[in-house]
């Protein structure tokens, strides 16, 4: 998050990516897992949008849906993924290959999934340059070296000829980012890119991403389970739980004024922030449930310290919980806060029932 540019100014104009009511389900022998269950969010140019939630909440499936890389037996069942004004769900495989690694690039948790052990790092970057920018020969070599320098790899002239195993974990992730940049993407999707790295290296990679974003006006979708990382990098945050976005807000507002009990629980679990009396770190008891049925109730209710009877029978819809300028929304029957509880529940009941979110 850079202080010189507010979320409001970033959000002027059309979003570069607009995910609308996306639903992706896995059809296993046993059940249908609604891994992503009707989520919507936007990303603007130059903006970093965080997706945060515990393991199993549907973050990676969201990223893979956007890239149209959902594994079998998964299917995108509903929604639109508008990119530069066109629906990615209408693209054929060839068009998608050109977009992937072209205007949209992705960085995964484990850099070795993106690097081939038998080719030098330089040759892999050059292959990306050839495929997406038609560069070859000494021009491509020069560009590969420049990219390695841009991501802060020292001695790039020499390292361009080395193999992935000759790089440390942090340097490998830098090399993967260089490969992603080789295609000059507009949108970079990062799925837990720093989770496998130690904290010092993690901080360096986050800093690098911010620098690259500023230089290139990159839009970044940043996935993590770590609220501390979100605080460092995101402009806007979407909190995911069991396939749904349960809260969405600008980062400062989310940290200062979290509304959903799940977000409050996540923030209380950050070491050094939510110390209970006696200095013990609070955690949210239990695990994310597998979303294997339609949401006719609140999926967080079984773990929620504020749950009441209706949470088991009414599905919460997104309601505004901040002022208009922040677009702060939460899906929880406790809101709108200014209504008596019964009337607030009725808002969710009627909006959910009249097809407000098309289930
Ligand atoms: P996260 O990235 O937030 O940890 P994922 O997006 O990987 O979570 O997974 C969300 C849900 O989708 C989980 O319940 C998981 O079991 C299910 N899921 C993911 N991939 C598959 C698959 N290939 N087959 C069946 N279920 C899957
Ligand atoms: Mg994941």
UniProtKB/TrEMBL annotation:
Membrane topology: Peripheral membrane protein
Coiled coil feature spans: none
Keyword field: ATP-binding, Cell membrane, Ion transport, Membrane, Nucleotide-binding, Translocase, Transport
Catalytic activity line of the entry: Ni(2+)(out) + ATP + H2O = Ni(2+)(in) + ADP + phosphate + H(+)
InterPro entries cross-referenced by the UniProt entry: AAA+_ATPase, ABC_Ni/Peptide_Import, ABC_transporter-like_ATP-bd, ABC_transporter-like_CS, Oligopep_ABC_C, P-loop_NTPase
GO cellular component: plasma membrane
Domain of life, source organism: Archaea
SUBUNIT field: The complex is composed of two ATP-binding proteins (NikD and NikE), two transmembrane proteins (NikB and NikC) and a solute-binding protein (NikA).
Protein name per the record: Nickel import system ATP-binding protein NikD
């Amino acid at each position: 998050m850079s202080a010189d540019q507010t979320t409001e100014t970033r959000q002027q104009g059309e979003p570069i990516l607009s995910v609308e009511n996306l639903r992706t389900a896995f059809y296993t022998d046993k059940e249908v897992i609604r891994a992503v269950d009707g989520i919507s969010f936007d990303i603007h140019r130059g903006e970093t949008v965080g997706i945060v939630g515990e393991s199993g909440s549907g973050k990676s499936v969201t990223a893979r849906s956007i890239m149209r890389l959902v594994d079998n037996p998964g299917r995108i069942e509903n929604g639109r993924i508008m990119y530069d004004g066109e629906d990615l769900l209408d693209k054929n495989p060839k068009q998608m290959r050109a977009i992937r690694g072209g205007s949209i690039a992705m960085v995964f948790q484990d850099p070795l999934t993106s690097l081939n052990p038998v080719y030098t790092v330089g040759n892999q970057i050059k292959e990306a340059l050839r495929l997406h920018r038609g560069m070859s020969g000494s021009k491509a070599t020069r560009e590969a070296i420049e990219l390695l320098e841009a991501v802060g790899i020292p001695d790039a002239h020499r390292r361009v000829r080395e193999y992935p195993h000759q790089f440390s974990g942090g340097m490998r992730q830098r090399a993967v980012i260089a490969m992603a940049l080789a295609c000059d993407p507009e949108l970079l999707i990062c799925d837990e890119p720093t989770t496998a790295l130690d904290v010092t290296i993690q901080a360096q990679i986050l800093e690098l991403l911010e620098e690259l974003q500023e230089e290139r006006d990159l839009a970044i979708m940043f996935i993590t389970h770590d609220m501390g990382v979100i605080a460092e990098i995101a402009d806007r945050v979407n909190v995911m739980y069991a396939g749904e976005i349960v809260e969405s807000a600008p980062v400062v507002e989310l940290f200062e004024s979290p509304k959903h009990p799940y977000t409050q629980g996540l923030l209380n679990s950050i070491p050094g922030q939510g110390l209970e009396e006696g200095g013990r770190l609070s955690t949210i008891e239990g695990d994310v449930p597998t979303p294997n049925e339609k949401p006719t109730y609140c999926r967080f209710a079984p773990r929620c310290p504020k749950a009441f009877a209706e949470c088991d029978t009414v599905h919460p819809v997104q309601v505004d919980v901040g002022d208009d300028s922040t677009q702060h929304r939460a899906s929880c029957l406790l809101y709108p806060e200014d209504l008596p509880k019964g009337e607030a529940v009725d808002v969710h009941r009627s909006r959910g029932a009249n097809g407000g979110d098309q289930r």
